[in-house]
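Case study 2.
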Amino acid sequence: MAFPPRLQMYVLAAKARLARAGGFRRDPYPAPPGVELSPSLAHARALAVVRPALRHSDDAGPLCDWQERARAKLAALTGFPVERAAPAATEPEDRAVSAGLTRRRVYLRLWHGGHAPMDVVRHRRASGPLVPLICLQGTNSGSHLSWGEARLPPDPVKIAGGGDYACQAARLGFAAFCLEQSCFGERRERHIAPRSASATIDAANHALLLGRTLLGERAGDVASVVDWIASGEAARVMDMTLASDRVAVMGSSAGGAVALYASALDVRLAACLASACVGFIAETIACRRDDSGQNVVPGILQWFETDDVVALCAPRPILMVSGARDHLFPAAGMERVAGSARRAYAKAGAADALGVLSPEGPHGFYPAVAWPAFHALLDRGPTQSGMSVA
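Prediction:
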């Protein structure tokens, strides 16, 4: 006698709960020995044999020639907006910030027509010309962490852990440009209903439909900020003197990835601090769970690996930092990327302009070691960068 369908459902659910309670994992789709059914196994086989076609290490010609070809290809793959409308800013508003610092906000109309909050933090006693440093938060509650403002319950812990990038940078003599990244904080999705649990996956998928990527769009946003600074409008609106030819960028985790790719794509960025984001693609995002899609670039492994992206930054100074116990971007993988990319830096006569730090600790930003190393790197970097800070 067959049980009614609903009763069968309850029986199956009870068996599954009993199996979990007993420490057993019940697989309703058992595979016979020797049969590989999981998609990741097929992808792993492909990753083991893929050979990117535009590897910097395979090119015997001048580095600048390879960079020109590679940069154009990376722009096409990511959907980076090579041609952009000049950004426009709203009237500035003075906002509260930590003691000794000032913060002024505008809303920038970026290349795609949307807006982004832009908060510029500097020390009250800072005198120009100040080096602009674009600060990018990772996957968290938003750029307000950069100036030490807590809005959500986890924020105080993140700020105490070094998330107040702009305050740190401003006290070191930078003019910190806090760009709210697409999908985070004030730029979170509001109009799709219902939305996916991930803050970024909807935008990442929609960008793909347009032949773009979320990573390329975010790098384009950074380029728009550089456009704004280079035009002189940022200095006028923010009422400060800026070294507009010496713009740097920094970020951690997802923010670090954008900082790295933006530096590879926009040669006007004179230096980069990329934290908790560097590893070979085949060893990181290509072989683990990813519900965000924010660093996925279709077809990239047919052309590049991460060391090639770093090589596109040569000879400009770049500091890469990753904790020894980082579970997403282990320090050992970052060091292998740096070892390969250093060949391109050496070819450019700037081997010392590529810095690597592996502090003891998990995934995160390490201000106590990152800022002194970044300062030292800027001081001894190649003359092409022209970087120096107070």
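Residues 5-21 form the longest helix (17 residues).
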